[in-house]
Each structure stands twice: as C-alpha cells, then as structure tokens.
Amino acid sequence: MVLEQLFELADMNEEMAAIYQKCWEEDVLFGTILPWKDTGKQYIPTEGSDELMTDVRGTSCFIIKFGVPGEQIAHALWQDNKQLLFASSANPSGKGNRGLVTGIGSQI
User: What is the pTM assigned to this prediction?
Assistant: First the structure.
C-alpha cells in the first residue's frame, strides 16, 4: 500500500495522517483500525469480499511498510487496476492470538 492509496481509502483525521506519514518516511511497519471512506468502499470487490475485509463497524486494519515484495505487489495492483491486496490476520477468525505464537492456530 502506498500513502496515496491509503489516503484515498481510509477515513482519518490530520493527526492520524501525520502518524502514517512519519512511519512511511522512517520505514516503520504500522497499522491501525480505521473506517473506510465512502468513496473508498467502491474498490472493495463485490463478490462478498466486504464480509472478509471489514468488520461490523465497516473498519479495516490499514497497514503500511509490511515488506518490499508485498508492497510492490500491492502498488502494482493499485496502479494498474485500482485493485486491493488484503490478507488475513494470523489468528483463526474471531479468536485473538494474545500475542503468542501458540495462539496462531494450526490452520494458518
């Protein structure tokens, strides 16, 4: 995800935008739960992905600086087709991992 994409998709205030900007400039992995902009929701695939990409509040975790290979793929998808790249968190759906590797679950 590049910052321009993030700012087009996620609804955030100036303070949050500044935090993302600083993390981007300092190459820091960072993500927060944010609501989608109404205009950003149009990019969520319509075949049921919204159920996987958002929670009941209509929010997602928007992450930056998650590794060069993934970032390059996300950038190319967005630049070429305005297509999103998303991934599951490393825990079975609905069950927190409590920060422990043992909590990740065998199916992940």
Answer: 0.75
